Amino acid sequence: MTASADSPRTLFQKIWDNHLVHPEKGHSEEGRQTILYVDLQLVHEVTSAQAFEGLRLAGRKVRRPERTIATADHNVPTSDRSLPILDQISKQQIDTLRNNCQEFGIKHYDLNDPNQGIVHVIGPELGYTQPGMTIVCGDSHTSTHGAFGALAFGIGTSEVEHVLATQTLLQFKPKTLELRVDGELPPHVTAKDFILYLIGQITTDGGTGYCIEYTGDVVRGMSMEQRMTVCNMSIEAGARSGMIAPDETTFEYLRGRQFVPNDFDAAVELWKQLPTDAGAKYDKSLTFRAADIAPQVTWGTNPGLVVPVDGKVPTPGDFDDATEQKTAAGALDYMGLQGGEPISGLKIDRVFIGSCTNGRIEDLRAAAAVAKGHKVSSHVSAMIVPGSGQVKQQAEAEGLDRVFQEAGFDWREAGCSMCLAMNPDKLEPGERCASTSNRNFEGRQGKGGRTHLVSPAMAAAAAVAGHFVDIRHWS
Amino acid sequence: MKAFTTHTGLVVAMDRANVDTDQIIPKQFLKRIERTGFGEFLFWDWTKRDDGSPNPDFELNKPAAKGASVLLARRNFGCGSSREHAPWALEDFGFRVIIAPSFADIFYNNCFKNGILPIQLSEEQVDELFQRAAQHPGYELTADLDACTLSDAHGFSTSIEVQPFRRHCLLNGLDDIGLTLEHEDKISAYEAAHA
Predict the structure, then answer these.
(1) SS3 label, residue A13
(2) Which B-chain residues 115-154 have CB contacts (< 8 A) with chain A?
(3) Which of B18, B35, B180 has the CB atom closest to A170's CB atom?
(4) Stretch A122-132: mean pLDDT, rounded?
(5) What is the pLDDT of residue A84?
(6) Buried-most residue among A298, A377, B58, B171 (CB within 10 A)?
(7) Per residue in A123-154, is it b (16+ CB within 10 Å) or e — as a string?
(8) Three-point CA angle A207, A213, A214, nearest 5°
(9) Do A140 and B102 touch (CB under 8 A)?
């Protein structure tokens, strides 16, 4: 379909149209490759080394180094930064990023930079992430930046190289999926519960081939950090990107941040044109009721295997088709569960609060509010990993570090840490963990480790109680 | 990039849905800064028992899977992270064709950059291939990207859908960056208009 600029368009369609390099605007067809301009590329150590090496081998330069920023996050230790990195292979990867950034002239937030942190935390916090942009990164959680009304998605290393060399990407146009949630979330139900619930409803491949736009009362009422939690996990529903239309909340969050446009008010006027027009059509729309959402806990080995905290772990017989039954049986076996037990009764060994999903200041405040005046259960080891140096500094200024430490939580340096356990922070086989991260895949947090995804408040409460608890009844 | 025209190979059936990239290549192997040599780490946690010995129950460890180059799996194959190490590991191990009812978007895209043909068929067709693989020892499939067909020697044949541009690049082993740079004037014009 050829859409003229006058017909009503979705947020996605407007950003797409604004970034078409070839074919020119108005001539793009479904299924045809398009050269799309990339406004911002974020780079980290794990998926970039081979891309830079590709440039060197082909004798190519980085086309627009000022449109790329880099930081080391996946692989970095979260212990004392003044000590050398013991894992020599990790160290080599981190050193390689530093050298590549130097050679190609890319801004790099190195380990000891006060702004170092998880790439999806620092981009927004420094004001690099802005409405209407196209943003890519060799990381699937790039969808986070869609919270600002940007088209943001993860790419492979070959594409990282393509963007470095050309500042563009070859793309096929995704379809659009509206997930609309109206009403008001019940007390103690958070953005994390909201997105886990939606993934449970549409399943882990319900969003495949789509760009999701979250609409309705609930996201309108959310803070930017809550919106980032929602968009972050779009990929767990199979969608490469998820977005929320920018509004006053967005503009107020960005105002005064380091890398926002100089003429901020003029930029805001342009950003106000971005939201989906009345009458614009999505390829698919689904609606849900906020009142139906309870605090969520995952029980299985993908984020769609989730139940309300007052629910029970399902049995394979609760699923309809043979493939899902087999998946459920495998998940129960891996997770050391029978099926049928109340999820709140599960005893835990570890707690991880952090990640690009839930490692921001509001997340730490929510966890601290629960932990304050309590002690971590004697059989639980709990760690807090701020999403960035700025988040850590802010938390310390508010005294949250003392609240956590007095309660017996381990207070760490910024990084991805035990979300994917590439660094020394990992689960031992059989350990059960309440985690605020985004993936509960087998072995994700350490071989044999059993991950249950929850909100920061639920994770903190589980640390204190030693098992999952319904945060609605916490005192 | 390695070109793909036609490939006939031994099929290994992996009766699992939602095979994620953390299983295909676990994170401890993502620290390497090379593109090659990932094959020996493919499905690492599934290939080993807890004591480190080979897991005889794992599909790829069975004698009948030796030399397999066509992987048959269930829905949502390759979900999870964007790591291109996943197709690097599959390709390095020897896989050239992956067949499933659905693939995760980023993984699907990454396959084409690495000479692997991902083929999406209906659930029913995939079921039939699982049955045929169980029936015929040494079961082979032929993927012909030029003719856009997938067939076996026992009467199965179906057409396959691949976007024309992806097909063109894979058939010819083309470098995407080189192709895009043929439009360098358009990129410059875009930048000038949006400066």
Answers:
(1) helix
(2) none
(3) B180
(4) 98
(5) 87
(6) A298
(7) bbbbbbbbbbbbbbbbbbbbbbbbbbbbbbbb
(8) 100
(9) no
